[in-house]
Write a structure and sequence with these properties.
3-stranded mixed β-sheet, 405 residues, single chain, Butyryl-CoA Dehydrogenase, subunit A, domain 2, alpha+beta, globular, Butyryl-Coa Dehydrogenase, subunit A, domain 1
């Protein structure tokens, strides 16, 4: 695996302060189920997050900026398109990719989102649906971050209804002309290319469109109070001309973009665990040091009950994602199963972050402590890649056979 094989696997140290020998962030010892390579990936990314992300992410969140200087390090570790074989990619398994997402989101959802979009929403469709020429042209550059991509599906009026697509692509001789707009596009302000989904006479098709193509405009979305350390933009395509070779040849219809979303949602289920673990970790430390009414806060039964609930929910999320990852590696993962995990784990994480913020009292609203940052980020995470309601309806359809959308 490119970038990660040089690292030496070292066991994570669960001991901190007066904690018990059990790892409070891994009560069911999922760690022991990992292969040596999977554990190495987790350790390597954890060290990267501790050394390069956590020291700077608070300032970037406050300033509404993305830490662009860590992009080359992310690429060097092989975290972009990490599950792709060949084309300069690391060729990790799906469990390893999940652990990458978990550790990155322990740092910040914005960092995981950058990697998730580049890997699952840009590189994956090129790898899965593209021609060999498209793969050779784009995948090596995206793997090394020589190029950054974005994924143009969501539209201003559409949200959870991608079938109601207004962006159109029309044939013009041997070329295509694309017109329309896309909204809430992660990585857009720094993107060199976009995978644009547009309606054609033969249904929805995907196109690889360099962002410097005439008629292509990007506007950064500012004043966000969630995912502030992530760059988000709106895409505007006004009669953008691309050659026939820009079309992804091997997929038609919504199956294409929805397949990308399934892959991205899988990574999100793991990322939510990392955010929740960071919040519980903060609570464990804070309540051990904070004294109230003459005793440490963690001696209070009510506090212990709330911490225990956080740990229980995190454990259930870990088991869901771990099982999902093994299904994924076996080629047996179904979209409905991903919906169960995305629904549960995103809800678990935002509830954990909110309760952690509350336990910290006045300190909970300070960016000095991580729960408020994670809580704000998770407002986006629980919304994008399918809202909670969307995933509930996906599961409902699987149970009944009835489409209630």
């Amino acid at each position: 695996m490119r970038g990660l094989t040089v690292a030496t696997a070292t066991p994570l140290d669960p001991s901190k302060g007066t904690r018990s020998s059990i790892d409070p962030l891994d009560l069911y010892d999922i760690r022991s189920e990992l292969t040596e390579d999977e554990a190495m990936v987790q350790d390597t990314v954890r060290r990267f997050v501790d050394a390069e992300v956590l020291p700077v992410i608070r300032e970037h969140f406050e300033q509404h900026t993305f830490p662009r200087d860590i992009i080359p390090q992310i690429a060097e570790l092989g975290l972009l398109g990490s599950t792709i074989d060949g084309y300069g990619c690391a060729g990790m398994n799906q469990i390893s990719y999940g652990l990458v997402c978990q550790e990155l989101e322990r740092g910040d959802s914005g960092i995981r989102s950058f990697v998730s979009v580049q890997s699952s929403l840009v590189m994956h469709p090129i790898y899965a649906y593209g021609s060999e020429e498209q793969k050779q042209e784009w995948l090596p550059k995206l793997a090394t971050a020589e190029a950054v991509g974005c994924f143009g599906l969501t539209e201003p009026h559409g949200g959870s209804d991608p079938a109601n697509m207004k962006t159109v692509a029309k044939r013009d001789g041997d070329d295509w002309r694309i017109s329309g707009s896309k909204m809430w596009i992660t990585n857009a302000p720094i993107a060199d290319m976009a995978v644009i989904w547009a309606m054609t006479d033969e249904g929805v098709r995907g196109f690889i469109v360099p962002t410097d193509t005439p008629g292509f405009d990007i506007q950064e979305i500012e004043n966000k109070f969630s995912l502030r350390a992530s760059l988000t933009g709106a895409l505007f395509l006004d009669d953008v001309r691309v050659p026939a070779s820009a079309m992804l040849p091997n997929v038609k219809g919504l199956r294409g973009p929805l397949g990308c979303l399934t892959k991205a949602r899988y990574g999100i289920t793991w990322g939510c665990i990392g955010a929740a673990q960071a919040c519980l970790d903060a609570v464990i430390d804070y309540t051990a040091d904070r004294e109230l009414f003459g005793r440490p806060l963690n001696h209070n039964q009510a506090i212990q009950l709330r911490m225990a609930e956080m740990a229980r929910q995190i454990t259930m999320a870990q088991l869901l994602s771990y099982r999902l990852g093994r299904l994924n590696d076996a080629g047996n993962m179904r979209p409905e199963q991903v919906s169960v995990a995305k629904w549960h784990n995103a809800r678990m994480a935002i509830d954990t972050a909110r309760d952690a913020r509350d336990i910290l009292g006045g300190s909970g609203i300070s960016a000095e402590y991580v729960p408020i940052r994670h809580a704000l980020n998770l407002e986006s995470v629980i919304t994008y890649e399918g809202t909670e309601t969307v995933h509930q309806l996906v599961v409902g359809k699987a149970l009944t056979g009835v489409n209630a959308f």
